[in-house]
Amino acid sequence: MKRTNLNTNMENEHKQNQSVCAENLNDRIHLSSTCMKRKLLAGFAVMIGSGMLYSGCGKKKEAPPAPQPSVVEDTALDEETLPDEETLPDEETIADEPEEDTHEGEARSFLTGEWIDEELARQRPVSCMIGNTQSALPQYGIGEAQIIYEAPVEGGLTRLMGIFGDYKNIEKLGSVRSSRLYYAYYSMGFDAIYLHYGQASYAQGFLESGQIDDLNGLEYAVDQAVIYRDTSKKAPHNAYATGKALQAGIELKKYETEYEKDFEGCYQFAEDDEPVILSGSTCQDAGIVQPGYQTNQPHFEYNPEDGLYYRYQYGSRHADGNDNSQLAVKNILMQNSNVRTLDNNGYLEIATAGEGSGWYVTNGKAEEITWKCADNFSPARYYDSEGNEITLNQGKTWVCIIDNSHPDRVHFYADAASMQ
Questions:
Q1: 301 neighbors 310 (Cβ within 8 angstroms)
Q2: What whole-number distance in Å separates Cα of residue 345 and Cα of residue 12?
Q3: How far apart are the C-alpha atoms of 261 and 292, rounded to whole Å?
């Protein structure tokens, strides 16, 4: 029994020694791994390794207790805690890059060059004759026109024609006045549906020929569908239209509401974020622009903060009666044209076809140009001194038809102080 117990005790002690030995071996492996990760504890790990020697796996040799190291926090990430390479962000995606605007569902406006709804971009515009005498003021809806034509009429006056790409929500438009033949031709160049109330006798034959899609207030059905009278105004300055009424008139006449597929527009426009800066040999400062009309004496003032030209006439700001906003455009085109008087009533004929000189004004500068128009039904094209078709800045445009016999009435000034 004693021998059996002795053997048993020796076997148990041997097993314990083996276990301790294995533990000591694991400790040394662990310390060796830690040593590789933590260079700051390398010397201490070596000391621990040298102080923990054993005579063999069969019997544990007594050793003094090892000193406990002070705790040093390792802030480095273990390899196991590093994110996988697949989860790391690409260098290209680290910086926030703005998404490219693909203009899905949009197209460039033929009138302004700006991106608009593609269905609206394919919609034919409406042009409207608008009175411009003092008694006709204020004009309504004109601020919503993308292009405005101004040309002389009888008596030294001018008349305006607004071209509206988006007309359906216009609250009030007018006053609607009578046509002149050259205005009908200008309208056709933009493939616009032409709204007017009556006409000079020289225009009647063409307007009734079926060559132009027009809405003439003298036609009873059109008058009933499109025109209403403002009782606060006296005739002939009391005829007005609305956007909904224009739609009704177009439906009444069954006019096509979309451009032909091969329509190319009248202007070419600058690309996004690439504005036109005039700098040619004929370029001059144009902070103030005077087109030279004698009765209303209009001028445009350039605002460098928004890059627009603000319109004045009859000694005050030219405003839209619907919201009292001042008329402002990005571009001004001056088209010198041959003008002659037709009769004792002072009715004029203005050459719309042919070619001539002019000016392009934008961003505070003016530059000489030439214009050409193939026929009365085509748009005018504008060219620089080298014969290249000019590029307009995106935005609204005012076209001034200038009497060729009085080009000296046109003036450009650097600023208001220079104009005095």
A1: yes
A2: 135
A3: 39
DSSP H or E stretch at residue 310: strand 308-313
CA distances, 302 to each of 143, 296, 367 (Å): 17, 19, 15
- Counting every residue written for the chain, the total comes to 420
Residue-wise DSSP of 350-367: E--SEEEEEEEEETTEEE
Query: CA-CA distance, 177 to 236, in Å (whole number)?
Result: 8
The helix or strand, by DSSP H or E, that contains position 127, with its residue range, turns out to be strand 126-130
With contact defined as beta carbons under 8 Å apart, do 331 and 360 qualify? yes
Cα 235 to Cα 229: distance, rounded to the nearest angstrom: 9
Secondary structure letter of residue 294 according to DSSP: T
Q: How far apart are CA 361 and CA 119, in angstroms?
A: 31
Q: Sorting pLDDT into bands at 50, 70 and 90, what band is 208?
A: very high
Other beta carbons less than 10 A from residue 217's beta carbon: 22
User: Which residue, among 183, 202, 204, 201, has the nearest Cα to 192 in the 3D structure?
Assistant: 183
Strand 397-403 with 331-337, pairing: parallel
Helix-helix angle 2-37:42-51, to 10 degrees: 160
Q: What pLDDT digit, counting tens, does each position of 9-27 carry?
A: 444 444 444 444 444 434 4
